[in-house]
Amino acid sequence: MTKLLKIIRIELMLFIRQRESVFYTLAFPFICLLLFAGIWGKFPGYINTLTSGLTGMIALNIAVFGAGLVLNFYRQHGFYKRLTISPVSELIYLSGLIISRFIILFVVANLFMLFSYAVFGFRIKGNIFEVNLILFIGTLSLAALAVFLVSLGRTQSQTIQTANLLFFPMLFLGGTFYSIDHLPQFLKIIAHVFPYTYLNKGLSNIIIRGTPFFQNITELGILLFWLILCLSLAVKRFKKEEVL
Amino acid sequence: MAAIRLERVTKKYDGFTAVDEISFTVEKGEIFGLLGPNGSGKTTISEMIVGLKKPSSGEISVVNLNPFFQRKRLAGIIGVQLDYTALPWNIKVKEAVELFASFHNIKSSERIRFLLERFGLANKKERLYKYLSQGEKQRLGMILACLHNPRVLILDEPFSRLDPVARQKFFDYLKGCKKENKTVFINTHNITEADKLCDRIGIIHKGKLCAIDSPQSLVKNIGFKFRITCPANFSLRINSPVTKVVHTAVNTYFFTNQPQELIHILQKSNQNFTQKNVDLTDVFLLLVGEEFND
């Protein structure tokens, strides 16, 4: 337990010292909220749609850059190797890293929703606990996808490029700033491949429509499918490298 | 009693043989050096010894454990410093040491303070890893390897980035380890340091073990007493069976037991040359041959 707590504390510090992560996770959602709410905030229901989408964006950012990219940096720079020959299990270290990211996610996402409520009158029709629960599952699923896809990059620059290639299409097509119903048909098809789209759908179902958590069967099913698929692929890839 | 044992160990990557049927043992309390040029297979051997890589064939045991399959158990017994830098960039020196200390269940801050002072990082403990010099990173790697007072130390190129003062401190530390009957395995291409420090040396080239013995015996058994060095452009037909010639990019080396005749020829042809007694560098040169980089 001491080991895990130490890992969580160090990983939190490492995240906070990474200026880009701090900006995109903490500042960027607030900037986007102020900007887009200032432009389209008067349209009925837009604040709720925007806050829901930007809460999803916080999860996406933490999953791709805070977990996927960081873990692959650890792999490329030999830190993961160092862990494999230390007495601590890699699983404990990864758990520590993931828990630290969830602490950041829950703190930032809830503060963000609170801010939107205080400034723009954002309302959650469903249950706030269920919002956090779907954020948890969605972030795990996105992190597994990020860890696997980003691990395909061999060099550091390839790793960053892959993370960006994963992040931006999902951000713009996954219903962050506007509903995907407004997208052209071919983009809708692409959007429906991304797990992020289902996180956002689940979030808006709970936040805007008040749908109970377990009635989001399609969204939860697809998120869990991505989670299991990507996790097995990532584990396979890491194990293969280990034997080599 | 052997602390490290390799038996007919081979490692292949896609048809390329990096390590070819290598066998040797490192005894408890011994400082053993594996010496070889770049790409000779030293790091692969270290990585197999610590359990990072699985041998394609053959067997390895470290303190009677199989490194690949009992890696976590072994990690509590051995200390490892690998060649590459391997910590998150934004971690502070103190945090890194405390983190690894927690992995080994070390609660004593005394031990941490002792090692930080011993390796000259006490005044840099608040510094981020990314701002450390290469030598400081290497010293931090040493602290992490020695934190739990391991019975066996595996060090990959430990002197390469150290300044002379840090190197001497490190030498003293390793000699202290020997006094405490700890085993040290050093992987290096630095002949002088291996000669000064190691009880025995194994010379590896192209994945094969060419020789293994104490530095003195390696020199004694190589078969030549003198080395005469001439510029590389000098060519001379030598018919003597007691002379061996090694050409490198910079020099031509003549190894002989009877230098008088050769010196006479060189003086007659006004050729610049130097003469010295054979040492460990020459053993390395003779075994590794023309591929040795001056």
Describe this protein's structure.
Chain A is an all-alpha fold. Chain A has one domain. Chain A is built from ten helices and no strands. In chain A, helix 1 (2-17) crosses helix 5, helix 3 runs antiparallel to helix 5 and helix 5 (90-120) packs across helix 6 (128-151). A six-stranded mixed β-sheet of chain B has the order 5-6-7-3-8-9, with helices on both faces. A four-stranded antiparallel β-sheet of chain B has the order 11-12-10-13, covered by helices on one side. A three-stranded antiparallel β-sheet of chain B has the order 2-1-4, with helices on one face. In chain B, strand 6, helix 6 and strand 7 (183-188) form a beta-alpha-beta unit. The longest helix of chain B is centred in the middle third of the chain and has 16 residues, at 164-179. The model of chain B has no long low-confidence stretch (mean pLDDT 87). Classes of the chains: A mainly alpha (244), B alpha/beta (294). Chains A and B meet through helix 1 and helix 4 of A and helix 2 and helix 3 of B.
Can you tag this structure with a few keywords?
heterodimer; A: 244 residues; mainly alpha; 10 helices; B: 294 residues; alpha/beta; 6-stranded mixed sheet; 4-stranded antiparallel sheet; 13 strands; 32% helix
> Fraction of residues of chain B in helices?
25-40%
Mean of residue pLDDT of chain B?
87
Secondary-structure-derived class of chain A: mainly alpha
Shape of chain B: globular
Sheet having the most strands of chain B: 6 strands, mixed
* Run of helices and strands of chain B: EEEHEHEHHHEHEHEEHEEEHEH
Counting DSSP E segments of at least 2 residues, the number of strands of chain A comes to 0
Give me the number of helical elements of chain B: 10
Percentage beta strand of chain A: under 5%
